[in-house]
Amino acid sequence: MFTFPAVLKSCEKFMGVDEGRQVHRLIVKMDFVCDIYVENSLVHFYSVCGSLDDASRVFDEMLVRDAVSWTGVISGNVSAGLFDKAVGLFSRMDVEPNAATFVSNALMDMYVKCESFPEAKQVFDELPEKDIVSWTSIICGMVQCKFPKEALELSCDVQSSGIEPDGIILTSVLSACASLGALDYGRWVHESIDHKVIKWDIQIGTAMVDMYAKCGCIEMAMQIFNGMPHKNALTWNAMLNGLAMHGHGQKALQLFEEMVREGMRPNEVTFLVTLTACCHCGLVGEGRRAGLLDEALELTKAMPMLPDVRIMGALLSACKANGNVELPQEILDRLVEFDSHDSGVYVLLSNIHAINQRWADVTRIRRLMMKKGIEKTPGSSVIEVDGKAHEFIVGDTRHPQDKHIRLF
């Protein structure tokens, strides 16, 4: 009986649906099909491998179901993007869901992925008991889905709940600090990690480098970076990005060369931040002057992976800086191929044409944005006061202290 779940787990690792089905047939033949432990393993296996019809069939034929059974089938539907079906299954649950079930059945995760923060928070608030898994799920989800301000607010709440945040939560909080430029709060997290003697791993180290680098503390970021015994591509990218953001283009290029020398394979993000560094310091290659955008485009074509919208957006920034209006048309064609919905690159391209009084092209780009349903993201700024991040959006008056702020 205990052998089958282990074998199915092995099949999961290489997505061996056919092999798993053979195991399933053996389970039926040996009459273990009514064992809930084995059945739950089958539901989980089929869900992970994306074979939801098989998962649902096993689930529907189960005579007895527990929280693990419901969690397996609901999580599978969430992973496949079948949110309505997942909610429908959740409403049918005939077991008492505890806090761990709530999290593992991915309802909260579903809302976060849909960027429905109020609903995710509602599910979280309604949990009868919140454990470390609950807090980890909501805080990490908020950071991943670009709600850093809310993540910081929740990180304050976890302190008052009596639960000790672990390295996973603090890593996500550091990422939120990096996004908001909340240096003081990030320093507090740094001190908290050292005080709690939490083991530094690559994830924590990378998040720390990213936070200090994005907040402008390049020396501290470099000190942590150099002190890390093990680094991955994310670590190198974080340091490269920090140097590029703050105008240290030459240092970024030197670090990129060091990365290559140490045998670390660059990825698309590495090329993006390196290209950004080139734009910031006026270079398209070591020792060359700015304006060689054709060569930069050739570099993107020679990359070992397809350049994404961020890399093409970096080229657009270079075009604007150099007043080049011929290259953007080729970049626009590439952006259409990507089916990008990033408003920033379209606005930037439109601005380039506007500067050069090419109004027909400006109109064409705006029509393309309307056709794709792309809206310009409103400008915003964030300021940290007493460890709390305050975000202000253009034309927004919803801040609770709006009237007092405007008196200044």
Automatic annotation (TrEMBL):
UniProt KW keywords: Repeat
Gene Ontology MF terms: RNA binding
PANTHER family associated with the record: PENTATRICOPEPTIDE REPEAT-CONTAINING PROTEIN
Keyword Repeat tagged: yes
InterPro entries the record matches: E_motif (IPR046848), PPR_At4g14850-like_plant (IPR046960), PPR_rpt (IPR002885), TPR-like_helical_dom_sf (IPR011990)
Biological process, per Gene Ontology: plant organ development; RNA modification
PPR repeat ranges, renumbered to this chain: 35-69, 131-165, 232-266
Protein name: Pentatricopeptide repeat-containing family protein
